[in-house]
Amino acid sequence: MIKLIVLDVDGCLTDCKMIYTDNGLSAKHFNAKDGLGMRSWLHLGRKIAIISGGKSGAIEKRANDLGVNYIYMREWDKLTRLKEIVKKENISLDNVAVIGDDMNDYKMMKAVGKTYAPSDAVEFIRDYVDTVVSSRGGEGAIRDMIEDLIKQEDLFSEYIKLWN
To answer: Is the entire prediction scored with pTM above 0.70?
Structure first.
């Protein structure tokens, strides 16, 4: 049973574009469909962690708005951070699903029960994961992952009840 999903940000939760203004501010694009999927997952009693190599106030704001349980940025060793979360939650790494798109996600992906990648992930990651979703990063990939898990975990009727 998957109890925790871990999301990479750039290339999964966002479209991987980095936008900087002349005065040094940065911006991120998020997909509302991903957000609704994340809220649904949380309402089903499951947990979400964001573990990112980057850092942005926009990531923190979006995660807090959605009620994400764990937010870690500037993490180069994502697996070590994940092990801390798993210990705190008293679950196994087998109870974790990860979505990632690039090499900095690989070590963490090797340790968990289920792996996903957006359709535009780097080839090595696409070839490695259990499931490549049909959407690109930042364009519904997180929602695709969550809906796949909802079906696999036999939560679809509970998912529909959330919106009935």
So the answer is: yes
Taking every pair of Cα atoms in the chain, the longest distance, rounded to a whole number of angstroms, is 49
E strands within 4-159?
4-7, 19-20, 26-27, 47-51, 70-72, 96-99, 114-117, 131-132
**Residue entry with tokens 């995660």:** 63
Residue 148 structural domain: 4-162
Are 53 and 72 a contacting pair, CB within 8 Å? Answer: no
The domain tally of the chain equals 1
Residue 65 annotated in ligand binding = no
pLDDT in tens, the chain (164 residues): 999 999 999 999 999 777 777 787 777 789 999 999 999 999 999 999 999 988 888 889 999 999 999 999 999 999 999 999 999 999 999 999 999 999 999 999 999 999 999 999 999 999 999 999 999 999 999 999 999 999 999 999 999 999 88
CATH at 103: 3.40.50.1000
